[in-house]
């Protein structure tokens, strides 16, 4: 669904979750459940995600495979022994893709029914990525009725020429109508995905898209800085000189414009690429994604989905047909497993946590790892603070405003040399 996944979808198990390896654990660990829908009607020109057009005939069996995989969790994961159902509960569910809004409400409900065989938190966020071109009032009402309580709408741009250039199959009028219908259907937690640094995009074009977005007042906005991915039509067109994309300075200007516009419009910039509407009575941050940024455990189901559980990272088979065959045969669809070293877990906890405005708590780090941040990274922290990229305030380490523009330079300093 997204042009560029600016979050790193890496999460590792918190230290206390090692108790999941034991069978007598009585304290449920909260996990996020990610459901990957590997189908799209058409393929956008910039997209290298594990998503396929033309495989609609597989969708029905894919749904059954998802349900089978969910029911086997987490024992479908190699190396994880049988875990009593009381040992974890689902705190959030995220249907991502691909295009989850290709599914019928009945198909989504089949997956939710499988998930509900596990304990689920009372007010769990159940989020679904939606293409505006798929949405109608009756469909949206049906989604709401089966328990979906948040929509992430793939708006990308409010410029019809740009949408065509990207290979999107909706236009701006469709996006606006879909948003209004979602409100009418009762969705009170709606997010927009918007892309910048797009081919031939000027700062003025981008600001116009931002203004159209805030005029609709969604509850959350995620921004994606386009990157040209190898193997995509965009990569071929750039190589052939047929497509011009803004340079890094222009992209930085667009990012700054977003910071300014969204701040003026009352949005909280809580993560490098994410903003939540400021509301005294409600937290509109993406609860599922907060788990990733806080490096907490999650389970992913579907073709190519990732999981982090019990100190391991797992990646499922990519090909939908193979995934379906394995899962329906009662076999694990996991293709690769990586045990996470404490050094890698600490590094990723910082890389992910520093994406958040709240940063990383010094006491939380020490409690989780038994070592202080200063003990592990002292000279690096001193250097990055002196460079004006990191700041420590009230016991929390966070990026400075300048550091947000140079996040990758900061993050790479915390990865172990071997990774
Ligand atoms: S909708 Fe477009 S960007 Fe999203 S996964 Fe499908 S092809 Fe990729």
Using brief descriptors, characterize the structure shown.
Arc Repressor Mutant, subunit A, 419 residues, TIM Barrel, alpha/beta, nine-stranded mixed beta sheet, binds iron/sulfur cluster, three-stranded antiparallel beta sheet, 2 domains, 15 helices
Structural write-up:
The protein is 36% helix and 22% strand. It is an alpha/beta fold and 419 residues long. It folds into two domains: 15-291, Alpha-Beta Barrel (TIM Barrel); 341-419, Arc Repressor Mutant, subunit A (Orthogonal Bundle). A nine-stranded mixed sheet has the order 9-10-8-7-6-5-4-1-11, sandwiched between helices. The chain has a three-stranded antiparallel sheet with strand order 12-13-14, with no helix packed on it. A hairpin with a 2-residue loop joins strand 9 (267-271) and strand 10. Helix 1 crosses helix 10 and helix 6 (203-216) packs parallel to helix 8 (248-264). It is globular. The site of iron/sulfur cluster has 11 residues, from loops. Iron/sulfur cluster (SF4) binds next to loops.
Oligomer: single chain
> What would CATH call the architecture of the largest domain?
Alpha-Beta Barrel
CATH superfamily of the largest domain: Aldolase class I
**How far apart, in Å, are the first and last alpha carbons?**
28 Å
Global Rg: 21 Å
The structure class reads alpha/beta
Number of helices in the DSSP assignment: 15
- Describe the biggest sheet? 9 strands, mixed
Please indicate the percent range of residues in DSSP E strands (runs of 2 or more).
15-25%
Bound ions, cofactors and other small molecules, one mention each: iron/sulfur cluster
